[in-house]
Amino acid sequence: MFNIIIFLIGAGIMFYMAWRSWSRRRKLMTRGEKVEAAVAGTVQSRDGEAYLLEFTTAGGTHRLHYPKSAKGRELAQGAVVTLYYNPDDPAEMYVEGDKSVLGAEVLYVVLGIVLLVLMAGIVR
Hints:
Layout: H1 2-31, E1 33-45, E2 48-57, E3 60-67, E4 80-86, E5 89-95, H2 99-123
Antiparallel strand pairs: 1-2, 1-4, 2-3, 4-5
């Protein structure tokens, strides 16, 4: 019985993580500011290598660090990307088409399903 509870909790956590990521991304895309940002280069941030994205709004010029994915597409310096960000917290952002974010959401769902299947195997 204890194993079943552990698998259910694990699956619940995975589904929650997928929902939370999807929800935050959708919120940024529907309520956040949409801008065209230029890739000014790469920088070393506290979380590893990141792209330096620059864009201008009525409030001035902004420079944000966007984490560089280890296996995602490379963004060339000078490339223009569509960026959604929260004006109240610019660190909360999403680059349109970022496959690493979408991949993480799919991975969470797959892991949740695997945990449920494993749990079903234990119940039998």
